[in-house]
Design a protein that fits this description.
6-stranded antiparallel β-sheet, Ribonuclease P protein subunit p40 isoform X2, 8-stranded antiparallel β-sheet, alpha+beta, 18% helix, RNase_P_Rpp40
Length: 321
């Protein structure tokens, strides 16, 4: 089951779209893994486990083993389209790259998806100087001031001797060089070879680890949820929209008394926030900032492995898949 709900908290607030669906984790057609895989750029992950005084060991060990990522300073964009980089990292694992400290509505930005698609979001002047084929941003308005360029690094025709590759390399290296700081992550498929730390100069790359914090929310009054009732029932259970707003208040540490009395909760939540200034949200769907850059999803997982999936975006976004 799937439903879409526009959220409007204030009369003049921009549109916020919440898409909800429910399924079972072991159902043959469950799409939970695909939704996680297709939302590539995430900056925050939060768990909420009601009635839990001590974090389960299996979850604690999973969090501790989350891995490293890298900050790469002053990288010329053309280095991501060289065949040495493509053969070493793009074709031999899952490579994510996202420009760091860039604003999607003001600056040129870039993102390398694990599918091998390089997405550029550039202003009108940069687009014209590059001379590469692209399309107007769908959030530019009547006067187009931003363009999206997609380069498929895994395309068989994008080989070193091809005109396509030579043109892209020339455009990014000589015609209009672009340089950014990047956040990178690479998951190797098991093949031996170079690592990101050995591939780039040591004074250019820095290893980072995610910041992990734990907190206990005492006397938290939890809503009653029925896994088969997305829309809830008056006086019996909460709807998915009510749960989403309550969870937002909890994660942002807003104090209020939302429910009349505490209830035992037989569920937990996993909330994932995407980067506000990423050029894409899900898959290759264009993402814009507008007034907040919201793009996030939340799983509500019940004891019987039923789940609700809530996907939310702001004004300058397509409907989640």
């Amino acid at each position: 089951m799937r439903m879409s709900v526009p959220l409007r908290r204030l009369r003049q607030a921009p549109r916020h779209l919440l898409v909800c669906e429910k399924s079972h984790a072991r159902h043959a057609r469950s799409r939970h893994a695909a939704h996680v895989r297709d939302h590539a750029y995430n900056c925050r992950v939060s768990f909420l486990i009601p009635e839990c005084g001590t974090l389960p060991e299996v979850l604690k060990s999973t969090i501790a083993d989350v891995g490293e990522y890298y900050l790469l300073r002053n990288l010329s964009l053309h280095e991501l389209v060289t065949h040495e980089f493509i053969d070493t990292f793009v074709k031999k694992g899952s490579c994510h790259a996202l420009t760091y400290n860039t604003k999607i509505d003001q600056d040129n930005t870039a993102a390398l998806l694990p599918t091998g698609k390089l997405i550029l979001s550039v202003d009108k002047d940069t687009y014209e100087e590059l001379g590469l084929q692209g399309r107007p941003s769908q959030y530019s308005g009547k006067k187009v001031m931003r363009y999206i360029i997609t380069i498929d690094l895994m395309d068989p025709s994008f080989h070193p001797d091809s005109k396509k590759h030579k043109r892209v390399l020339w455009a990014l290296k000589e015609k209009k060089p672009l340089e950014f700081d990047f956040l990178l992550a690479w998951c190797n498929t098991g093949a031996e070879g170079s690592t990101l730390m050995s591939y780039f100069p040591k004074n250019q790359i820095q290893t980072l680890k995610p910041k992990i914090t734990f907190s206990t929310l005492r006397d938290l009054q939890c809503p009653v949820l029925q896994s088969n009732e997305l829309q809830g029932k008056p006086e019996e259970s909460c709807s998915t929209e009510e749960l989403f707003e309550w969870l937002g208040a909890v994660l942002n540490q807003v104090s209020f008394c939302y429910f009349d009395e505490p209830k035992l909760a037989h569920w937990l939540t996993l909330t994932v926030h995407g980067f506000a200034d990423s050029p894409v949200s899900w898959r290759e769907s264009e993402h814009g900032f507008h007034k907040g850059g919201e793009n996030l999803y939340n799983f509500v997982v019940f004891r019987n492995l039923d789940y609700w999936l809530q996907m939310a975006v702001g004004t300058n976004d397509d409907c989640p898949p």
